[in-house]
Amino acid sequence: MDTPTFDVAILGCGPTGAVLANLLGELGLRVVVLERDPEVHPIPRATHIDEETLRNFQATGLIADLLSHTDEFGDAEFVDEDGTPLLVERIADLASPHGYTGSRFFDQPAFERILRAGLRRYDAGVRLELGVDVLGIDLAPDHVVLVARRTDGEVLHVRADWLVGCDGGRSLTRGTLAASMTSLAPRRHWLIVDTLLRDMSDDAGLPGNFRYRLDRARLSIFARGFGRNRRWEFQLGEHEDTPDDATVRAWLARDIDPERLQITRIAKYAHNALIASRWRSGRILIAGDAAHMMPPSAGQGMCAGIRDAVNLAWKLHRVITGRAAPDLLDSYERERRPHVEQVLRGSLFIGNRLQADDAFQRWQRRHVLRLLGAVPPLHALARRASLRRPPLRHGCFDPASSLHGHPLPQVRVHHDGRDGLLDDLLGYRFALVIRPECVTRPLREWARAHAVAVVRPGVEFEEHDGSLLRFMRRRDLDFALVRPDRQIFGAGRVEALPRVQAAFDARFVAAALLPPAPPRHVLITDM
Predict the structure, then answer these.
(1) N or C: where does the chain have the smaller number of CB atoms within 10 Å of the terminal CB?
(2) Are strands 219-223 and 48-49 parallel, antiparallel or unpaired?
(3) Whole-angstrom Cα distance, residue 455 to residue 468?
(4) Main-chain dihedrals φ then ψ at residue 210, nearest 5 degrees
(5) Are 22 and 62 in contact (CB under 8 A)?
(6) Which residues pair with 415 in a beta bridge?
(7) DSSP per residue over 403-423, as a string?
(8) Mean of the per-residue pLDDT values for the chain?
(9) Tens of pLDDT along 193-235?
């Protein structure tokens, strides 16, 4: 039996796996994606995207299609059991450097279809196998072999140099790593009710965007969703069974006649706060829910998985093409784990202040929210605690640069006769954003040898409002060397450029220094 061979196998084609596959395809790697379900799940699991995640989706080159399936998130309101407002929170990072303003609702099934269709751009370079159940993972020192079965019973074997498990909370890949999950908070059980409005005119009687209702019996959540999607979530007691249909309809009736809704899903599930004990072993890595799971209080679960994919894809490419040693992949977990932990604790900060298991906690919750609404400085302090996104401090950077691990601001630019966003010019690659007068011939030669794009404000592009140049002046920067995931590798005055180049050279091999490439594996396409 012929065994097709790829650079990377991805197990799971949810949002994380699909973004990873698109980025690897753009970088020219041979990729296979194995997904158990033959079709995209028709009911959204996630509903929220923040500004950074929009920017990360932009890296796939599909943002124009994706944005048409989003809607403004707007405000989140916290109301008492009788509907009295306690606090209104604008869900937007007003200081976001990412080029987008405000979080958005999105249609997850539409996103996944677009991301999967985007894989067709890479012809035979990226292969998507749907309806395939992976039965086992065999490890070797220099590759992995996946044993899988199609729905018709046919067994197939796939060989890959690297495997990334994006296969969810019950990850087979994580089990192969023998990685355990550490809990940062007790599990909470909830009932989720997904619905579609039968008549859009009924939307006028529902909350405008997103609402927490603080009832005596239970905390509940209403999410407006995209299009006709409307979601209710109801907290359950620790030992409370799934309520019957009549009870669920009675809960919905507080907001709308249930007959006006098409109920598409009623399911009991757990809010978890979990992180895997390790994210890599040898040639196997995990990402998304396979590596971490968080409660939806801040809507960051899927966002965290997309960050994983954007962080990991370029590192795999550098290793596979011989431009970096395999230990570059250790920086993936070193960078992402502290960030995930901080975001997870921010989600718990929100959730813990909304939980109430007795009368005193309900009283405390109500008055804390009213206080936050009445005292803007206190509200701002709580907001920073819940939404803080730490820089990436330890990993693949020039550690002597004070801005290492911070995102480069994305600005609107005019380039090649068109208006757009800076990332579309930079691309998913290393880029040296530098004042024109600082560019020399040796610097250009160094950049060319390392596949680093040299981009000069005012030459390669014109800014719309000059905010990037203001950022550089305020930070006293002549240059910023930016990674493909838009994190700053190193930055400073031109005098610091040799130091940053040396830090880069310590990590990455110039093309001229690479040994002759070994013969590429033959790609067998008759799977």
Answers:
(1) N
(2) unpaired
(3) 13
(4) -135, 135
(5) yes
(6) 418
(7) TTTSBPPP-EEEETTEEEEHH
(8) 90
(9) 999 999 999 999 998 878 999 888 888 999 988 999 999 999 9
Range scoring the smallest mean pLDDT among 240-254, 281-295, 337-351, 495-509: 337-351
Tokens of 462: 């014109």
The tokens describing 11, both together, are 């197990």
Query: Cα torsion for 472, 473, 479, 484, to the nearest 10°?
Result: 0
* Whole-prediction pTM: 0.93
Question: What count of residues does the chain have?
Answer: 527
Count the neighbouring beta carbons within 10 Å of the beta carbon of residue 496.
17
Contacts for 209 with CB less than 8 Å, ≥ 6 apart: 73, 74, 75, 76, 77, 224
Beta pairing partners, 70: 106
- At 111, give phi and psi (nearest 5°): -60, -45
Contact between residue 221 and residue 207 where contact means Cβ atoms under 8 Å apart: no
Give 34-70 pLDDT, tens digit per residue.
Answer: 999 999 999 998 888 999 999 999 999 999 999 999 9
Determine the pLDDT at residue 382: 64
Give the three-state DSSP class for 182. Answer: strand
pLDDT of residue 314: 98
d(CA 521, CA 514) in angstroms, rounded, equals: 19
Cα 42–chain centre separation: 20
Instruction: Give the separation between CA 170 and CA 324, rounded to whole angstroms.
Output: 32
End-to-end Cα separation, the chain, in angstroms: 10
pLDDT class of 519 with cuts at 50, 70, 90: very low
Both structure tokens of 308: 């994983």
Segment 243-257 mean pLDDT:
96
Nearest Cα to Cα of residue 214 among 320, 363, 372:
363
Residue entry with tokens 């936050």:
372
For residue 116, what is the enclosing H or E element? helix 108-118
pLDDT at 413 over 60: yes
| Pairwise CA distance, residues 300 & 296, whole Å | 7
- DSSP letter for each residue of 7-20: EEEEE--SHHHHHH
Angle at 273 between CA 272 and CA 276, to 5 degrees: 110
Give 164's contacts (C-beta < 8 A, 6+ positions apart).
8, 9, 10, 11, 17, 20, 173, 284, 285, 286, 287, 312, 316
Residues linked to residue 431 through DSSP beta bridges, in sequence order: 453, 482
